[in-house]
User: What shape does this take?
Amino acid sequence: MKKSNLKILASIIIFFIIGLIFYFTVIDKVGTFSTTNYYLDTVNQISVINTRKSKANKVLPASDKIVLDIHNKMSSQLASSEVSKINQNAGIQPIKVSDDTYTVIKKAISYSQKTGGKFDISVGAISSIWNIGNESARVPSSEEIKSLLPLVNYKDISLNDKEKSVYLKKKGMKIDLGGIAKGYCADKLADYLKENGVKNAIINLGGNIYVFGQNAKKTDFNVGVQDPAKTNTEPLGTIQLTDKSIVTSGVYERFIEKDGKVYHHMINPTTGYPFENNLSSVTIISKKSIDGDALSTSTFGLGLEEGMKFIEGLDDVNAIFITNDKKVYTSKGIKDKFSLENSSYSLAN
Assistant: This one.
């Protein structure tokens, strides 16, 4: 080969290498990229960390679609959703649903059984008339609540595993997956991101948080626990986590006030009124977010003593209970990992 041709070939190779370097350092840079949407009645943010821009441009739009798909299937606010179709056909006929919706409903019923009905998705018949979190929220009359209580019973939800169908046995029954759907969605997002090569991410679905890998500083994530009193923007405390879900249910999330009394959104399936048990919030740390979502609501309903006993009996699940008198109780597995950072609260155990 002539020297001139060799020079041309060498120039092409050098140009190609420079182009690759330019692409990976400038155009396809490594960094943190996020997407934000409003589905499942909350603001959601999904962030991928130390990830190439080209990969983020692929996985983040797909992540939005996953959340939208679950919203379209499970939102009780959408007349076209699978949940709404189940409710519209209560006492009439079973409704075939997707694997997603069937899995969530079946998991919800298992938690109803484990907690003696403290967690019950059939509370929708009553939670829908309170409608807390929406403009039409109101305090129903005691007579109205009493008339609807017979429609709240998870044992009246009939599942057919072969058909993947759901049937509500009584007319007027309604299910509401608001206490578990976001957890399922967070798990599905985490699985999708991992399967597509994302090593580090934060999934925040309106307070349902799932983290895996490491943060931008290449350490475990320092996750804040919300101050139930919301006296400032600083967290009540923090805990370092990775490959974990952290979910909080609290009286501060959604509520209405009437005649000086505050009514939060977590309805007791037995009474039809919000739970009253001296708790202001419960935070659950678990491997699966669907478990954390269901457990944060159900243990709130169980109360401090019974709820903590329930958590201590589970593997790889921990909890932080905060009472109205600003005392913080942690399960045994995180006693040395939780850092209290608000001096108006005190560790009680």
Notes: The radius of gyration is 24 Å.
